[in-house]
Every structure is written in C-alpha cells, then in structure tokens.
Amino acid sequence: MSNKALEICTLYAGPSLQGVDKKLLRASGLVLCPPIKRGDIEHLVAHSPPSNLAIIDGVFHTHPAVGHSEILGALNAGWHIWGLSSMGAIRACEMDTLGMKGFGEVYRQFASDPELSDDEVTLIHQAQEPYLSLSEPLIHIRQFLRQWTSEQVITRAQEQHILNLLKNMWYGYRTLNCLKKMLLALLIDEKQIDNAIAHFSTYRVKTLDVTNFLIMQPWTRT
After folding, report:
1. Which residues, in sequence order, are CB contacts of 53 under 8 Å at separation 6+?
2. Does domain 3-117+208-221 have CATH number 3.40.50?
3. Is the separation of the CB atoms in 152 and 162 below 8 Å?
4. pLDDT tens digits, one per residue of 3-32
C-alpha cells in the first residue's frame, strides 16, 4: 500500500453519523459513502488500488447485506478494513480472525457476548441523506437502563422487564416515546424521564464509536 493510499479511508455510514461533529467528517482523505450494500466493496476493489475502508452502517432490506466473501476478497487484495458501531461491528466480530479489524464499544460488546443479537443495533431510518433515525437501537436503550439501574432509579427487575418487552417488539417500534411510556408505567417522575431523554446522546454508543474512530484515525497508523 502506497503512502498516499494510507491517507485515504472510504467510510460507509448513514444514521450513525447523527451527532458526529461535522468537522471530523471533513478530515483530509476521508471519503464518505452511503450505508453499505452487497456489491459495494467489489466495485470499490475493482476500480481503486488497495487502501482503507470502514464499514459502519449497512442496508439489508432494500438490498442484500454486504457479504463476507467480498470483504474477504478485499482483505486478500491488500485492503485494510475496519468494522464498528452497527453492521460493521457485527461483520468485524464474524471476521476478525480473517484480518478485519473491530473498533469501539459496540464491537467489544458483540465480541464479548456471543448471545448478543444483530437486532441490538437495528433501527429504521430515512432512505436518503441525512438518513435520520426513526427508531432507537436497543443497544442504546440498554446502556440507558443499565445506568438508571446503577443509580437506583429503577430496580434490576424493572430494567429486565423493560428489556424483555423491547426485545419482543419489532425494532421499528423501539422509540424514545415508547421507552417513556414504559417508564411512566413504573411511576417514574415524568420530568426526570424528559430530562434523561433530552440528554440521550450520552447513551448512543454507535455514534460515540464513530466519533472516536474519526478522532483516532487508526487507518493512518496501519
């Protein structure tokens, strides 16, 4: 890989970019692409010399999801590939023994808990840029509930009760408004709930992972 190629990173992302400082997205050598789909990596490898790419968000309804074989083909062709935050974290866990690199808290959670479902990071979002989220990933709500349990705002049994309700619900129905209703049913003070929801970005580990990735720029140290 040439020195010039080392400076380039193609980033496939969408809803996980919400809340990321726009200055970080204007970094030199960063190439932003929409959420990844099957065939995107094959096309990139066919038309570009080996460089760096990072998979964050991906589609799986409107198009087939990015395949393991195309990732492996790119790795074998000399590409350095990171996975984080969402579908990228899942693929990195599946392929980290084959050369794909995992990054961030979401990746660590999947790597440490083989029972963690892909459903944890799934959400619905707008089909076009800026891909605004229309639901909240369960992994974010889980972070929030864990914090409230540690602060003894809710009990561990109440935390598990809400998680069970959400896990048995279609991911598109998992919204902060839905969470608020569940907390109100536990007789939690509404103002306390509204204040927590107003600061919910604290628990959005998918976005925090993207921010840390862009700050650390690990592709420049490969």
Report:
1. 9, 10, 11, 12, 41, 44, 74, 79, 80, 81, 82
2. yes
3. no
4. 655 679 999 999 999 999 999 999 889 999
